[in-house]
Amino acid sequence: MIEKNSGWVVTVKAPPPSLNDNTADADRLINEVKSVLKTDYIDMDLPLLKNLPWRLRECEYQARCVCFKDRGRWKLVGVKNVNDSSVCAGIAIDLGTTRVVLRLVNLETGDVINESAFDNPQIEIGPDILERVHFADHAAGLKKINRLIIDGLNEHIAGLCEKSGVNIQDVFLLAVSGNTSMTHLFLGLPPNQIIREPYIPVVNTFNTFSAKDLGIQINDTARIFIFPNVGSYFGGDLISGIIYSGLHVQDEISILVDVGTNAEVVLGNKDWLVACAGAAGPALEGGVSEIGMTAKPGVIDRMIIDPEDGTFDLHTIDELPPKGICGSGMIDMMAQLFLSGMVDIRGRFVASKCGDRLKESDGIRRIVLVPSDASATGRELSISQVDIDSLIRSKAAMYTILETIARYVGVTFDDLSTFYIAGTFGSFINPGSAITIGMIPDLSEDTYQSLGNSSLGGATMILTSRKALDAVEGIRDRITYLELNVNQAFMNRFSAAKFLPHTDPSLFPSVKRMVL
Questions:
Q1: Which fold does the domain 9-81 belong to in CATH?
Q2: Phi/psi at 208 (nearest 5 deg)?
Q3: How far is residue 147's CA from residue 131's CA, in Å, rounded to a whole number?
């Protein structure tokens, strides 16, 4: 529920014009809105001005006004009759590389009306963000990849509104949260310098945009807010996550990790924030293996190996026949293989422990998780030595990112009050398994808190809270960004972390107790 005087819809009553008061319609309305918002400046775009005279007379100068701030300056976005029972709506968008999630919100009450999601249509260019950026090196490629996401959003926004009984013309605000490359592609901005030294985006902080100018088919006067970026690999989705977690207003030191295409990390409290990002994401999302998948029905998300007889107890999402494995399942699997002795500290298969599950073809060993007659695909589901090596590199990168940012600031992991894990990955991960393989610090499991889709959560807060919007710019300006691409200490620590759980077992005392 939106607190009084904290949302974007205000109700005003203006005196009707007369021969004694011939103030222009727009000025008459704006003066009343200024009084409610306690501001000196409110802008109104031409499309709204064109319809204003008949709207004001229809509602007898009593109106629900949708307003928004653009870099501190107010803008009047929509005007509706006070007697009109239809909603004033906004849509929060998590603009993911793989998946796009939409949340339809009532701007007056803050209630979530409905949600939907769809696969990012830019996947047809390439599942990897680098492929998309290279494709966009030329104007024709950039135009095509921009069109894919705009058309996809228009289709699914229309579908979401239709199934929710909301007129698409009643959508006045969009809040978009995504990484730096995804926001560039959404806006049709050339992203090619983001991936080339010295890693420079076109822009980090955006004005709000007209939905019509971007080709988004909602109300013509609707505004689109896009979370600002901090660096080439630290995007607005992390700022959205910071807003959602509340890390930026806490006295204690906390850390926030979002694992997607990259692993993005922010460390700090209400006084300071330090951020960095690195390529630890794909493997931890389940993307290192032929059977790796994002979390969805039928995908293995948890696994236990019986210490007595070595049998595998697999759990799939919605308990359907297994068809693949997601990131949390990979981490559980790796932890269980290590604890059971089926792999050694280097992640190499131990034949005497694996038994007849271990197979070899073309000189590459693999362990069978699910035989062909028990899988949903009719083919065996197995993990190869190559898959495990990739997972170990990714978990080493994850831990090294965390270690590097903590050392840069001069804190230890024991100084952390909360370890926030965001995204789908955070919703399914078993912290105990991640600690066992040396991916995250050996802290009490109470320290770890899953945020779910914090990118979407933060975008939703922008639609329901003026304070949240006001906080965004301050957060971005407070963040110190640590560039890992040129950090030699990172590379040195990375080599030490490519063991289970680490070359220094004293860093993981709880794991040492389990394997002894």
A1: Ubiquitin-like (UB roll) (3.10.20)
A2: -75, 155
A3: 16
Check whether 515 has a pLDDT greater than 70: no
Beta-strand runs (E) in 332-392:
358-361, 364-370, 381-384
* Architecture, CATH, for domain 89-226: 2-Layer Sandwich (3.30)
- pLDDT confidence bin for 287, thresholds 50/70/90: low
Q: What is the CATH number of domain 245-282+391-515?
A: 3.30.420
Domain range list for the chain: 9-81, 89-226, 245-282+391-515, 299-381
Q: What is the secondary structure of 104-163 as a DSSP string?
A: EEETTT--EEEEEEEE-GGGGT-SSHHHHHHHTTSHHHHHHHHHHHHHHHHHHHHHHHHH
pLDDT tens-place string over residues 374-420:
999 999 999 999 999 999 998 998 999 999 999 999 999 999 999 99
Q: Which helix (H) or strand (E) holds 183?
A: helix 180-187
DSSP 233: T
Nearest 5 degrees, angle CA 96-CA 377-CA 339? 75
**413 φψ region: left (φ > 0), alpha (ψ -120 to 50), beta (else):** alpha
* Contact call for residues 250 and 269 (beta carbons, < 8 A): yes
Residues 6 or more apart whose CB falls under 8 angstroms from that of 212 comprise 47, 220, 221, 222
Name, in order, each residue with C-beta under 8 angstroms of 454's C-beta and a sequence gap of 6 or more.
Answer: 240, 241, 244, 245, 256, 258, 420, 422, 423
- Using one digit for the tens of pLDDT, what is the confidence trace for 297-348? 999 999 999 988 889 999 999 999 999 998 889 999 999 999 999 999 999 9
Q: 98-115: per-residue pLDDT in tens?
A: 899 999 999 999 999 999
